[in-house]
Amino acid sequence: MQERYIRNLGPLTEKECLLLRKRRVFLAGCGGLGGYLLEHLLRAGVGKITVCDGDRFVPSNLNRQLLADETSLGRSKAETACTRAARVNPEVMVEAFPFFLTAENASEQIAGHDLALDALDSPAARRILARACCQAGIPLVHGAIRGWYAQATVILPGSGLMEQLYPTDAPAHADQGSLSPTVGLCAAIQAGEAIKLLCGRSSPLVGQLLWIDLLEQEYQIVPF
Fold it and tell me: Which residues pair with 76 in a beta bridge?
């Protein structure tokens, strides 16, 4: 066991640590949630990560996005994620897909991965991601935040849960802004569930939505 992973032992077995190094994850979005998710995956030692985002950093990202700093403004989010990965854990193979996920490219990009993480901010893009994961037969760990509030769940192929969460006829929500603590908490929950699934463990969030109110410190499990 390499020294960089020694402190992962205990919560994870050595066998699970070695298994993570063989796993491949698709990370959709490299903004708020995506930056923190990438960090957790790198430090856990996931072997291969594809980072997907067609956006570039702007000053309004600086309040909550881990990959955003004064030097990354104007740069591709996906390519910045690769730069960060090389500094944190160069043993992890990180591939940048610096384009937005679309109905035309999603299936091809997601094929061959073991799990996908939803760090998107568009209901339409989330539905595209969920459909591609269903076609690939892999689990999708969903997370979303707004203001003080966050939600997370694990979506298995064929469950149709994403369509229940984001029906096509639902009214659009006004942007209420996002806080760094909310983003960090949601990403930590998503990463924890992803690591368990990649190790072959079960997730208590399969078919259930964890709803978090960070303002009042209320946590609810909503079954679907």
Answer: 56
Q: What is the pLDDT of residues 10-33, one digit of tens each?
A: 999 999 999 999 999 999 999 999
Q: What is the pTM of this model?
A: 0.97
Alpha carbon separation from 202 to 130, 166, 186, 198 (Å, rounded): 20, 25, 19, 10
Question: Do the Cβ atoms of 121 and 168 come closer than 8 Å?
Answer: no
DSSP letter string over 4-54?
GGGGGBTTB-HHHHHHHTT-EEEEE--SHHHHHHHHHHHHHT-SEEEEE--
CA distance 213 to 223: 17
